[in-house]
Specification:
Largest sheet: 8 strands, parallel, barrel
CATH topology of the largest domain: TIM Barrel
CATH class of the largest domain: Alpha Beta
Helix content: 25-40%
Length: about 260
């Protein structure tokens, strides 16, 4: 992996070959912390080598020992030629996962590899890069990233771009919207023909509409232009790296890269 690459794509096995054609580092989302803990693997094309390991912890019970698991991770990295690890650990922090990340931080630092962690685990090691999501339903992205840069240092912060498409009822006290597929978003825009605006604070497009059944709605969504603006905003704060989920942005990649 080019250690200073500005963009990294995450891709599950079915999308790995397609993601590789852009010449960017790919974090292969084929790995999970399983019971034991042991490293669970999805089937990967044999020909795919290099890039990063992308690891999640869905369903993990939090029991076991860190050391043997970390050695499993390193063996797989060696076998596949990975030179970086992205740990997409969601949910409430678990002590064992914190220990795993702390151990991996030492092992990756020794090898000169980057280790990426979610914000919940940002304090596990000073050498880990911290993923800060671009998805907001309120507040300001520049403030969010600025606070993260102040807390961790801009060199440790990585923008995790999440392509948003959500429909919110107004008012929305929970700040939670109904996720829309791209097909649903297109159909809604074709039906309503709305005036579309850009929110500088959220760094995303939006429109409103009225429904006879449930009143006022607010729809927030991204396109290639708003994603480019997110990347520019991050760079302006000294945040030099971003991670994008390839399946989310598959249809936008050419436009995103053209505008860099």
């Amino acid at each position: 992996m080019q250690p200073n690459s500005t963009l990294i794509l995450t891709a599950p096995p079915a999308h790995s070959r397609a993601a590789l054609r852009f010449g960017l580092p790919v974090a292969h989302a084929a790995y999970r912390v399983g019971g034991g803990p042991h490293l669970f693997r999805a089937n990967m094309p044999i020909s795919v080598r290099g890039g990063l390991m992308a690891l999640d912890c869905v369903g993990f019970d939090g029991r076991g020992e860190a050391g043997p698991f970390c050695q499993e991770v390193l063996r797989e990295c060696s076998a596949r030629g990975y030179d970086g690890i992205l740990c997409d650990f969601e949910g409430r922090p678990m002590p064992l996962l914190t220990e795993i990340l702390s151990t991996l931080a030492g092992l990756t630092k020794k090898r000169g590899w980057p280790l990426y962690v979610t914000e919940a685990y940002g304090g596990c090691a000073d050498s880990a890069k911290v993923l800060i999501s671009s998805a907001l339903s309120g507040g300001s992205l520049v403030q969010r990233l600025g606070e993260a840069a102040e807390r961790y240092g801009p060199g440790r912060v990585v923008l995790a771009v999440e392509r948003v498409a959500e429909d919110f009822y107004l008012p929305s006290p929970s700040g939670q919207g109904q996720p829309l597929s791209q097909a649903e978003l297109r159909r809604l825009m074709e039906e309503r023909g709305p005036s579309v605006f850009f929110s500088t604070e959220l760094c995303a497009h939006y429109f409103t509409y009225m429904s006879r059944e449930n009143g006022a709605h607010f729809v927030l969504f991204d396109d290639a232009g708003s994603i480019r603006k997110k990347l520019q905003l991050a760079r302006g704060l000294g945040i030099g790296q971003a991670v994008l989920s390839y399946p989310q942005v598959e249809d936008l990649m050419d436009e995103i890269l053209a505008g860099r």
